[in-house]
Amino acid sequence: MTSSTHKHQPHQLPNMYGATAAPPPTPSAQPNIPLSTSDAADALSILLHRLPSPTLTLPTRRSPPATCAPTLSLNNSTAAATLLDDLLSASSQLGFFQLTDHSLTSQLARSAESDSLALFDLPKDKKESSFPKNWPFGYEVNDDDEDEEQHGESFRLDSTCSTESTELPPALDSLREFTLAMEKLGVRIVELLCSAVGFENPLKEDPTRFCSLMWITEGVPGNKPVLSGGFYPYIVGLQYQIRCQKYSLLADSGWVSVSPQVDSVMVTLGDIAHVWSNGKLKKVRGRPVAHLGDTNNTRCISMTLLVTLPTDSTISPLLPKLVGSNEDEIEKDEEQSDGSSGEREERLFNSFSFEDYAWRVYHERILFKDPLDRYRI
After folding, report:
1. Distance between CA atoms of 309 and 275, rounded to whole angstroms?
2. Which residues on neighbouring strands pair with residue 215, listed in sequence order?
3. Per-residue model confidence (pLDDT) at position 42
4. Bigger pLDDT: 4 or 232?
5. pLDDT tens for residues 70-99?
6. Can you say whether the dihedral through the CA atoms of 101, 103, 105, 111 is positive or negative?
7. What's the CA gap between 106 and 263, in Å, rounded?
8. CA-wise closest residue to 308 among 354, 263, 348
9. CB of 327 within 8 A of CB of 319?
């Protein structure tokens, strides 16, 4: 039997150097043998030649992910219920779509583009005197970008394309007719949107309840989306597709790329529609930006019609039965006229001044932060 006084010895690893071998000397214990300058240079040269040659890959500009814009038709044969369903689906999922079978003609759009090109060909002093700055209207040069080659010019006109000069070389008759036709189409789209979402149309075809802004820019060559000028709040934005052209849109999810059909009207929903619907409709921030490519020297004019509000307006959600608004002090158990239960929806936005909001988003040039965040509840 093993003695009870025997103590267990801890297990020891074998000595890999043998019973009498000492461990290898540390680098600090090695003799310091100085090398001559030439020997050191030769050793470094041999070492560098043995290293693999590095491969340098420069980053390239990434194009926004391609997205197919839904197509909606205003053909009279399209059932009203089908149109509203398609409109609500496109607006609530993406915030943009392309419209076909509308009343605008390609001939009028091309004539308006010719008028716009003539504006950019005017001398700078003539542009400034004929279209003085009267925010948000007037002529402006976007010269605050870091890249000097990406500076752009823009004209922002009212629905009548009025000017301060009676002797302007381009008469702007086609541009004026085109703007009024786009405004009429935009007001109809707003009416359809209100019907699709389910709230009363605040415009009601009353010209004093809305205003239009025709924003004309000349495209800047390059694959990088460049905005000439700042943002301006709007309900819907319309842009006629004269030719096959790729555009970038700044959606809530980031930049997306679309290529609408020729002769269609690309429609984007703005921040006002987003707040009106209490967040149900998606939005696009700013206007569509054309892609010209680095080697494309062709001039490209973008004519975007924004249906917006007068500066003295107040923006707030318009959906009925919203929780949190003073005007909706309704009993929770109140029955609706159709007999359904009166469930109320939480209000997502506070009311705010359109003028203050418009001034801030235009001059601060906010790209990476949603300017509506400060009004969310």
Report:
1. 13
2. 156, 304
3. 62
4. 232
5. 999 987 666 788 889 999 999 999 999 999
6. negative
7. 6
8. 354
9. no
CB 346 within 8 Å of CB 323: yes
Phi (first) and psi of residue 322, to 5 degrees: -95, 135
Question: How far is residue 86 from each of residues 23, 98, 258, 324, measured CA to CA in Å?
Answer: 80, 12, 18, 31
Structure-token pair, residue 131:
């279209």
Q: For the segment 323-364, what is each residue's pLDDT rounded down to a tens digit?
A: 655 544 444 444 444 444 556 778 899 999 999 999 988 887
Q: Which two tokens stand for residue 235?
A: 């309900």
* Nearest CA-CA partner of 324 in 375, 271, 252, 273: 375
Two structure tokens written together for 80 = 């009203």
320 DSSP assignment = S
Is the Cα dihedral 193, 68, 218, 232 positive or negative?
Answer: positive
In sequence order, what E strands does the chain have? 71-73, 96-100, 138-142, 152-157, 211-218, 236-240, 247-251, 254-258, 265-269, 284-290, 301-308, 314-315, 322-323, 345-346, 352-353
Nearest-CA neighbor of 236 among 178, 177, 276? 276
How many angstroms separate the CA atoms of 248 and 178, rounded?
Answer: 23
Neighbours of 329 (CB within 10 A): 6
Amino acid at 187: V
Structure token pair of residue 50:
């043995």
Buried b (16+ CB within 10 A) or exposed e, 145-166: eeeeeeebbbbbbbbebebeee
- For the chain, how are helix, strand and coil distributed in percent, rounded to 5? 30, 20, 50
Task: Give the list of residues 6+ apart from residue 344 with CB closer than 8 angstroms, or none.
Answer: 321, 322, 323, 328, 330, 332
Q: Alpha carbon of 295 to those of 222, 259, 291, 298: distances in Å?
A: 8, 19, 11, 9
Q: Give me the residue label for tokens 């939005």.
A: 283
Q: What is d(CA 265, CA 100) in angstroms, rounded to the nearest whole number? A: 7
Give me the half-sphere count of Cα atoms (radius 13 Å) on the Cβ side of residue 219. 26
